[in-house]
UniProtKB/TrEMBL annotation:
SUPFAM superfamilies: PLP-dependent transferases. This is Aspartate aminotransferase family protein. CDD domains: OAT_like (cd00610). Belongs to the class-III pyridoxal-phosphate-dependent aminotransferase family. The keyword Transferase applies. Keywords: Aminotransferase, Pyridoxal phosphate, Transferase. InterPro entries: Aminotrans_3, Aminotrans_3_PPA_site, PyrdxlP-dep_Trfase, PyrdxlP-dep_Trfase_major, PyrdxlP-dep_Trfase_small. It comes from Aquariibacter lacus. It comes from the Bacteria. Pfam families: Aminotran_3. The keyword Endoplasmic reticulum does not apply.
Length: 461
């Protein structure tokens, strides 16, 4: 156990030594980080003893909730038995084999193979190398180009950040890498509402932006299209139901591979095992991470469908790619225990039939709040759009940072909700109950009321 220290002592050591991800180091150093010390179920406790409802499942990952002994025991036993061995030199470990087999069993038809990585970013780097290798093996080496979307998130490595459509990330480090371009996201509020399109009509328009980009590049040069079934880090952007089926039709027409980044949507988040099932498309590859171990230990990878697997295996030769921790035995043992627990607790059905629809109902009620312009959910992902004028749908000025103001009121009131611009988003653990959803929505409403009063006080309304 790590000896306890005061909050101030942790903050001082943190500022002195720990460079946090996606953080303005100087600003955080001046303020001091919040120190999270323990957790149980959907609750966190910080070093000041405040109990916080974790409506973000850590970082979209703690699907089974905190404190699950089955996962803890699996890790402990595997650490004793065999803490590490690699899978490079014609060796394998039982947990890696058993998890690959278990993943194939829960995957859509045609997915029989898994390539393991340590994270979602590494999974997407694998995707880039794998699809380009696939087309080389098909005798079409010019098919190198991958299309993704603005405001998509695919990780923070060079390829992951390049696939992602966050321009502020591209601005640091000379990204994107060559052979990647982006089309506009299927966000009706920003790109379809003002044009007077219904959501469903807009879904078709947005999907056809893929056709335009394919024509611009020449179909013979396009390797793959990648997207999150529901964009997570971009602000929980739920595409119109018409979007993904049309994307599938376009990709099929040109023989282009479809990659679903299931890092957030996988493992029950949207009410099916995979978000692509909820959104009605059949990817060739699926990136996964986060929920595969419920975040208890790092693990990611790629589910490889028949089309690509057959080429790699039958025509193959060596695939020159892999990580020290590809198939890490402890991570895979935790993954296995996690999948078993999701099945035992029937969490996928729980989301699809019970708490998912209940959250949708509760979120719809929040639309009566003066700050809420739109509320949408998909399974246990949800977003509230904060607007200045609900009737006209007028946005706040971005520099006012109204989402961050609201986030401050959430934190102050024992609720972790994330702000993406003025979209307030949640993705609570899948074990959440109806009563806990009521508590969550109660806390959200309180934070919205405090934000409203705060904005009036600032003269912003
Ligand atoms: N893809 C998606 C859809 C994600 O949400 C994330 C992480 N939020 C990643 C990839 C990257 O995963 P990691 O942070 O594990 O590298």
């Amino acid at each position: 156990m790590i000896p306890t220290r005061s909050t101030q002592a942790w903050q001082a050591a943190d500022a002195a030594h720990f460079l946090h991800p996606f953080t303005d180091f100087k600003a955080l150093g001046a303020k001091g980080a919040r120190i999270i010390e323990r957790a149980d179920n959907i609750w966190l406790w910080d070093s000041e003893g405040q109990q916080i409802l974790d409506a973000m499942s850590g970082l979209w990952c703690v699907n089974v909730g905190y404190g699950q002994t089955a996962l803890i025991d699996a890790a402990t036993e595997q650490l004793r038995q065999l803490p590490f061995y690699n899978a490079f030199f014609q060796t394998a470990t039982p947990p890696a084999i058993a998890l690959a087999e278990a993943l194939a069993a829960i995957a859509p038809p045609g997915f029989q193979h898994v390539f393991f990585a340590g994270s979602g970013s590494e999974g997407n780097d694998t995707v880039v190398r794998m699809v380009r290798r696939y087309w080389d093996l098909q005798g079409q080496p010019q098919r190198q180009h991958i299309i993704s979307r603005w405001n998509g998130y695919h990780g923070s490595t060079m390829a992951g950040a390049s696939l992602g459509g966050m321009s502020y990330m591209h601005a640091q480090g000379g990204l994107p890498i060559p052979g990647i371009s982006h089309i506009q996201q299927p966000y009706w509020w920003d790109h379809g509402r003002a044009q007077g399109l219904s959501r469903e009509d807009f879904g078709l328009v947005a999907a056809r932006w893929l056709e335009d980009e394919i024509q611009r590049l020449g179909p013979e040069n396009v390797a793959a299209f990648i997207g999150e079934p529901v964009q997570g880090a971009g602000g929980v952007i739920v595409p119109p139901a018409s979007y993904w089926p049309e994307i599938q039709r376009i990709a099929d027409r040109h023989g282009i591979l479809v990659v679903a980044d299931e890092v957030i949507c996988g493992f029950g988040r949207t009410g099916n095992w995979w978000g692509s099932q909820t959104q009605g498309f059949r990817p060739d590859l699926m990136t996964f991470a986060k929920g595969v171990t419920s975040g208890y230990i790092p693990l990611g990878g790629v589910m490889v469908g028949e089309r690509v697997a057959t080429a790699l295996i039958e025509q193959g030769g060596e695939f020159e790619h892999g990580y020290t921790y590809s198939g890490h035995p402890v991570a895979c043992a935790v993954g296995l225990a996690n999948l078993k627990l999701i099945q035992e607790l029937k969490l996928v059905e729980h989301v699809r039939e019970d708490v998912g629809p209940y959250l949708a109902e509760q979120f719809a009620r929040l639309k009566d709040h003066p700050l809420v312009g739109d509320a949408e959910t998909c399974g246990l992902m949800g977003a509230l759009l904060l607007v200045k004028d609900r009737v006209r749908g007028t946005a706040f000025a971005p520099e006012q940072g109204v989402g961050m103001v609201c986030r401050g009121h959430c934190f102050g009131n024992g609720l972790i909700m994330r702000a993406v611009g003025d979209r307030m988003i949640i993705a609570p653990p899948l074990v959440i109950t109806r009563a806990q959803i009521e508590e969550l929505v109660h806390r959200i409403r309180r934070a919205l009321d405090l934000t409203l009063a705060d904005l009036h006080g600032r003269g912003w309304l």
